[in-house]
């Protein structure tokens, strides 16, 4: 009702309460402890969570690479992402990217804006994209859902994890793993290598480049991961020297033993109670006098490493990250001689373990 249609209040009636103006409302809101807490939470958490979720999707969908090539309008982006029928809904998502500051939109063309968006678009940073994806898809959910999972007695299974994301994010520790390989692999001489849980095949490539006479077998439990390794090894011209196999390396039944067996970042795929038994089975694949090299993130690291440990603790396969001394002890119990650990870089809970198959299995 407009004021022109309002009738004056009858004489003697109580005065209508005056409504506060917008600025007064704002001042009252700012004095509210609840609103202040909400604003501080929003600054500290909501914006970073939204940005990491958006950037994860933007990187994994291919949007960042498209925009790194050149700015593009909605129609051509929709076409290049295979979303021609969904352009309107795509726009709503892209416009949030603009609001978050990761994209810009000028004259109807979207482009990369933030330093982070540009870095994630760089193909050389694929491991960083994988790590971001691992954090937003797996670490974030376990940190959020842990109490509910405990109440519902729920566990994660291998299918809850995307093996190809893990294979990419694992590459973040590439310099550390390569340094550990360099400590045990000679530059010359014939070496038969067995890599258990080869992921992308990156470390097999490193070993093969370090020693041009090296040949071997790369195995991964997850067929899609083994397929990724096979494609990569073919692209790197190594298919002749390294055979790729899918399956549980401890059950394949090889008709040979290997001079060097490597297990990078997968000892935690074996439950703690079964690690000695698994290591015994691994020892049966090592030639007499041959060596096992394990590299692994271990317990006691940063909060983000502990989030990985949490996920593994809530999974129905494998177990938590190893404790350094416990794993050395398990290797010795499995019959490896000279079982020892060494820190590849100071200050990081990333540790290499070696043992020799000094006796008959
Ligand atoms: C965290 S990923 C690491 C991949 C790669 N080693 C790297 O460091 O980038 C662990 C991999 O080990 C594989 N794996 C676990 N247990 C295995 C087993 N018994 N035999 C073969 N592969 C296994 C998993 O399928 C997974 O791809």
Automatic annotation (TrEMBL):
<dbReference type="InterPro" id="IPR029063">
    <property type="entry name" value="SAM-dependent_MTases_sf"/>
</dbReference>
<keyword id="KW-0949">S-adenosyl-L-methionine</keyword>
<dbReference type="GO" id="GO:0008168">
    <property type="term" value="F:methyltransferase activity"/>
</dbReference>
<feature type="compositionally biased region" description="Low complexity">
    <location>
        <begin position="8"/>
        <end position="22"/>
    </location>
</feature>
<dbReference type="InterPro" id="IPR036388">
    <property type="entry name" value="WH-like_DNA-bd_sf"/>
</dbReference>
<dbReference type="InterPro" id="IPR041698">
    <property type="entry name" value="Methyltransf_25"/>
</dbReference>
<protein>
    <submittedName>
        <fullName>SAM-dependent methyltransferase</fullName>
        <ecNumber>2.1.1.-</ecNumber>
    </submittedName>
</protein>
<dbReference type="Pfam" id="PF13649">
    <property type="entry name" value="Methyltransf_25"/>
</dbReference>
<keyword id="KW-0808">Transferase</keyword>
<feature type="domain" description="Methyltransferase">
    <location>
        <begin position="194"/>
        <end position="290"/>
    </location>
</feature>
<keyword id="KW-0489">Methyltransferase</keyword>
<dbReference type="GO" id="GO:0032259">
    <property type="term" value="P:methylation"/>
</dbReference>
<feature type="region of interest" description="Disordered">
    <location>
        <begin position="1"/>
        <end position="22"/>
    </location>
</feature>
């Amino acid at each position: 009702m407009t004021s022109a249609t309002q009738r004056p209040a009858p004489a003697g009636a109580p005065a209508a309460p005056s409504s506060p103006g917008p600025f007064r409302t704002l001042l009252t809101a700012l004095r509210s402890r609840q609103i202040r807490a909400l604003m501080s939470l929003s600054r500290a958490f909501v914006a970073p969570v939204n940005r990491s979720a958006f950037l994860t999707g933007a990187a994994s969908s291919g949007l960042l690479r498209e925009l790194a090539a050149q700015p593009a309008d909605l129609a051509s982006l929709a076409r290049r992402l295979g979303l021609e029928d969904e352009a309107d809904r795509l726009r709503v998502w892209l416009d949030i990217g603009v609001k978050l500051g990761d994209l810009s939109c000028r004259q109807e063309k979207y482009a990369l804006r933030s330093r982070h968006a540009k870095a994630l678009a760089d193909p050389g940073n694929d491991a960083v994209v994988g790590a971001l994806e691992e954090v937003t898809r797996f670490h974030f959910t376990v940190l959020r859902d842990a109490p509910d999972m405990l109440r519902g007695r729920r566990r994660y299974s291998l299918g809850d994890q995307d093996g190809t994301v893990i294979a990419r994010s694992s590459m973040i520790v590439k310099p550390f793993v390569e340094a550990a390989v360099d400590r045990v692999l000679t530059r010359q001489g014939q070496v038969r290598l067995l890599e258990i849980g080869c992921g992308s095949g990156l470390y097999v490539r490193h070993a093969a480049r370090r020693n041009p006479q090296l040949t071997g077998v790369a195995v991964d439990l997850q067929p899609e991961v083994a397929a990724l390794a096979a494609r990569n090894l073919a692209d790197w011209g190594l298919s002749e020297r390294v055979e790729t196999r899918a399956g549980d390396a401890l059950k394949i039944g090889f008709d040979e033993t290997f001079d060097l067996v490597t297990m990078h970042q997968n000892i935690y795929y074996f439950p703690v109670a079964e690690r000695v038994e698994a290591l015994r089975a691994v020892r049966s694949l090592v030639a007499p006098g041959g060596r096992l090299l394990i590299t692994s993130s271990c317990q006691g690291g940063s909060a983000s490493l502990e989030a990985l440990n949490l996920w593994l603790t809530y999974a129905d396969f494998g177990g938590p990250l190893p404790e350094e001394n416990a794993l050395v002890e398990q290797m010795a119990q499995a019959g490896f001689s000279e079982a020892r650990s060494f820190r590849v870089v100071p200050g990081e809970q990333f540790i290499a373990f070696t043992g020799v198959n000094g006796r008959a299995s």
